[in-house]
């Protein structure tokens, strides 16, 4: 499909109800013998008494294919049908919540790295959160993890101690046993212990590859070395688990390197701030919250300035394209009045509002195949 009005590169649409991140946990539940209210069948997994779900932040399917020599074990698991998609935007908070809840972003409501708190002129950063926002109110649906636990599955999350009780963790993973583990060795030991229960699902998260990609880029030596470490971790984990336990390796999104010359700073281009009351989202996928009556002018200006570097659409158009799945009424005002999805390696930065973001090399959030396609590897 071509999503850019008047031409441009093809975007990869989210495969909600088929092979998206929102379908992973319900599919594992089915493989464990628990059907979560007839969730659509798209991802078929082999039956097993216990599953380990290992999510590697930032390990896109195209990156794994391109750099298979640095991850020989994980590459060996890749075959026909070994890919799925992130949701939109292709960013960590949105993806982890789709994974944990079994819901598309339009239902769970974490619609980007940052999004407007309705009725205010403030943004909620979904990674760092805001103590004034109750994560249960913000994301009120029971999680898929919690629903499996309620159905009798022993569900454990093995993650860094600093994430225990965070807003994002509460929104996406509540209802399960949380085990803090900061090092690879203790993560593997905790996973092996938790997966001894039957039936069980043990979720393991690794954020280091994403951090490395942001700081150094996915074409860097540092990123390739980190990928090799992830590969070794996955292989060691598989070897430590009994043969009856299945391991499923996924990612939350991919990443692209954005060079300086491919970036547009909204604070340096005349007119780009006009009519924009609040700038949200992130560099590869912007939410623009507009002043009253300014939507048409904002769309026209941003399309003129960006040209073939991005797709600029209204909220209604984005929803009509199915980017967020079915959007619930309470989630609507969190979405930008206008949305900007970058093409190729471009980025929309703000030296005033998001100065740190402009220091990053690797970025994600848009609908290119490099960002949207994720591995789904059964080991």
Write up this protein.
This protein is an alpha/beta fold and 379 residues long. The protein folds into two domains: 21-255 and 368-378, Alkaline Phosphatase, subunit A (3-Layer(aba) Sandwich); 260-363, 2-Layer Sandwich (Gyrase A, domain 2), CATH 3.30.1360.180. The chain has 14 helices and 17 strands. It has helices at 24-32, 61-66, 72-77, 92-101, 105-108, 135-138, 144-150, 167-173, 184-194, 208-216, 221-240, 295-306, 315-320, 369-372; strands spanning 50-56, 83-85, 114-116, 123-125, 154-159, 177-180, 200-206, 245-251, 256-257, 263-265, 276-282, 285-290, 310-314, 338-342, 347-349, 362-363, 373-378. The chain has a seven-stranded mixed β-sheet with strand order 2-17-8-1-7-5-6, with helices on both faces. A hairpin with a 6-residue loop joins strand 3 and strand 4 (123-125). The longest helix is centred in the middle third of the chain and has 20 residues, at 221-240. The radius of gyration is 20 Å and the shape is globular. The model is unreliable at 1-8 (pLDDT under 50). InterPro entries: Alkaline_phosphatase_core_sf, Phosphodiest/P_Trfase. This is Alkaline phosphatase family protein.
CATH architecture of the largest domain: 3-Layer(aba) Sandwich
Strand fraction? 15-25%
Terminal CA distance reads 32 Å
- Tally of separate domains: 2
What best-fitting shape do the alpha-carbon axes yield? globular
Largest sheet: 7 strands, mixed
As laid out across the biggest beta sheet, the strand order is 2-17-8-1-7-5-6
Kindly report the average pLDDT value.
95
Derived from helix and strand composition plus strand pairing, the structural class reads: alpha/beta
CATH overall fold name of the largest domain: Alkaline Phosphatase, subunit A
* Percent in helix: 25-40%
CATH classification, class level of the largest domain: Alpha Beta
| The named CATH superfamily of the largest domain | Alkaline Phosphatase, subunit A
């Amino acid at each position: 499909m071509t999503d850019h009005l008047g031409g441009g590169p093809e975007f990869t649409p989210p495969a909600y109800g088929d092979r998206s991140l929102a379908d992973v946990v319900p599919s594992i539940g089915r493989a464990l013998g628990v059907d979560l209210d007839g969730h659509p069948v798209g991802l078929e997994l082999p039956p097993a008494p216990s599953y380990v779900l290992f999510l590697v932040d930032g390990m896109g399917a195209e990156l794994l294919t391109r750099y298979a020599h640095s991850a020989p074990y994980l590459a060996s698991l890749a075959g026909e049908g070994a890919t799925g998609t992130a949701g939109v935007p292709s960013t960590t908070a949105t993806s982890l919540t789709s994974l944990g809840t079994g819901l598309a972003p339009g239902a769970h409501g974490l619609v980007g790295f940052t999004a407007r708190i309705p009725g205010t002129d403030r943004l909620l950063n979904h990674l760092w959160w805001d103590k004034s926002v109750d994560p249960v109110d913000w994301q009120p649906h029971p999680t898929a993890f919690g629903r499996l636990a309620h159905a009798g599955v022993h569900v454990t999350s093995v993650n860094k101690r600093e994430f225990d009780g965070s807003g994002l963790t509460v929104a996406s993973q509540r209802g399960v046993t949380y085990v803090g583990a900061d090092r690879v060795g203790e993560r593997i030991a905790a996973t092996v212990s938790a997966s001894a229960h039957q039936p069980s699902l043990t979720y393991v998260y690794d954020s280091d590859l994403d951090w490395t990609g942001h700081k150094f880029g996915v074409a860097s030596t540092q990123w390739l070395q980190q990928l090799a470490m992830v590969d070794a971790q996955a292989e060691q984990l598989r070897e430590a688990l009994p043969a009856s336990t299945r391991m499923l390796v996924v990612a939350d999104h991919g990443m692209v390197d954005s060079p300086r010359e491919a970036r547009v700073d909204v604070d340096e281009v005349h007119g780009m701030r006009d009519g924009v009351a609040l700038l949200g989202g992130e560099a590869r996928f912007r939410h623009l919250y507009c002043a009253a009556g300014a939507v048409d002018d904002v769309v026209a200006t941003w399309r003129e300035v960006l040209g073939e570097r991005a797709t600029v659409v209204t909220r209604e158009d984005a929803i009509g394209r199915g980017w967020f799945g079915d959007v619930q009424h309470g989630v609507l005002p969190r979405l930008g009045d206008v949305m900007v999805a970058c093409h190729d390696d471009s980025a929309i930065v703000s030296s005033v509002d998001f100065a740190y973001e402009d220091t990053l090399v690797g970025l994600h959030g848009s609908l290119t195949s490099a960002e949207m396609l994720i591995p789904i590897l059964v080991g």
